């Protein structure tokens, strides 16, 4: 099943992706569960699908929102593919490198990524993200995937000079609309083993990054286990798992994103996340 958050006019909603159509969750269902996060938390995704029987809107005419517009937390994992570790001149970490993104730093599929006026060093990072389905605290690696609602594409846009002001990544990862997630959630029953997935990032059609999820230094069960050790993971929380090698900062000369560029994060079996780039 594929689920998405979207907007029509001033109306923000969510529903099921049915081929090339978005079918909004039924009115009575939305009265109980006003957003996708609430539906996930209630464990009512099957009922959501049953309620979504309206005419719908074509996906190519929809205004997609970030998949989870109101997460309690977005946790991102840095330097988690060996080629990216090497190209950035870092050492292999002993523990996952975790930083936080604010909800307002993200936009939806098809919407513009914004290069901030304060920097010329706006970089792309294509990633696989997971969405938590049931609360997780002190879970074992063996049980970790049971807490996953599903998976989506993620673009962790990075403002490199601001990221490198200090050893902490926060400033460079949280400019408004610098990242994106979507276009939809593919539920975990369709992806029992996320390690088989592959990821490609393209800029203006040119392949910039290629990675296999199997090559993560810290795999998805380990990331969930680690994060659930220091915080309670709640339904709707997002964990972005890291980016492969090939980022713009590591190229000679660097390849920074500019207004008019088009960034694609392509994960077969999950989705194709596409965003144009605009200046602030």
What features would you highlight for this structure?
single chain, 280 residues, alpha+beta, Fumarylacetoacetate hydrolase, domain 2, 2 domains, 6 helices, 15% helix
Explain the overall architecture.
This protein has helices at 27-32, 36-42, 45-51, 82-87, 160-163, 220-230, and strands spanning 2-8, 11-18, 21-24, 57-58, 63-64, 74-78, 97-101, 106-107, 113-115, 122-123, 126-132, 148-155, 158-159, 179-187, 198-203, 206-212, 238-240, 262-267, 271-279. With 280 residues, it is an alpha+beta fold. The chain folds into two domains: 2-64, no CATH class; 74-279, Fumarylacetoacetate hydrolase, domain 2 (Alpha-Beta Complex), CATH 3.90.850.10.
Short account of what is shown:
With 280 residues, this protein is α+β, with helices and mostly antiparallel strands.
Number of domains: 2
Shape: globular
Instruction: Tell me the name of the CATH class of the largest domain.
Output: Alpha Beta
Mind telling me the CATH superfamily name of the largest domain? Fumarylacetoacetase-like, C-terminal domain
Structural category is alpha+beta
CATH level 3 topology of the largest domain = Fumarylacetoacetate hydrolase, domain 2
Terminal-residue CA separation:
36 Å
Q: Largest sheet at a glance?
A: 12 strands, mixed
Strand/helix succession: EEEHHHEEEHEEEEEEEHEEEHEEE
Regions with little confidence, pLDDT below 50 for 5+ residues: none
DSSP strand count: 19
Instruction: Bin the strand percentage.
Output: 25-35%
Q: Which radius of gyration do the C-alpha atoms yield? A: 18 Å
Query: Can you give the helix content as a percent range?
Result: 10-25%
Summarize model confidence as the mean pLDDT: 95
The CATH architecture designation of the largest domain is: Alpha-Beta Complex
Number of helix segments? 6
């Amino acid at each position: 099943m594929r689920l998405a958050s979207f907007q029509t006019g001033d109306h923000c909603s969510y529903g099921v992706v049915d081929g090339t159509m978005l079918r909004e969750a039924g009115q009575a269902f939305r009265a109980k569960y006003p957003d996708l996060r609430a539906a996930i938390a209630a464990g009512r995704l099957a009922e959501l699908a049953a309620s979504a029987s309206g005419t719908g809107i074509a996906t190519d005419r929809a205004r997609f929102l970030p998949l989870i517009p109101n997460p309690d937390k977005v946790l991102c994992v840095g330097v988690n593919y060996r080629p990216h570790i090497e190209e950035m001149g870092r050492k292999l970490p002993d523990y996952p490198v975790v930083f936080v993104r604010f909800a307002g730093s993200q936009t939806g599929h098809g919407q513009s990524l914004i290069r901030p006026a304060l920097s010329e060093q706006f970089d792309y990072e294509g990633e696989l993200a997971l969405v938590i389905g049931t609360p997780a605290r002190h879970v074992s690696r063996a049980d970790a995937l049971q807490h996953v609602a599903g998976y989506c594409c993620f673009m962790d846009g990075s403002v490199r000079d601001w990221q490198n002001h200090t050893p902490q990544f926060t400033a460079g990862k949280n400019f408004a609309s610098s990242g994106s997630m979507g276009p939809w959630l593919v539920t975990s029953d369709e992806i029992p083993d996320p390690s088989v997935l592959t990821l490609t990032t393209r800029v203006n059609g040119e392949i910039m990054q290629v990675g296999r999820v199997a090559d993560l230094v810290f795999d998805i069960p380990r990331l969930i286990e680690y994060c659930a050790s220091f915080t309670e993971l709640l339904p709707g929380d997002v964990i972005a798992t890291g980016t492969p090698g090939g980022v713009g900062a590591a190229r000679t000369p660097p390849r920074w994103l500019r207004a008019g560029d088009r960034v694609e994060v392509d994960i077969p079996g999950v989705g194709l996340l596409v965003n144009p780039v605009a200046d602030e």
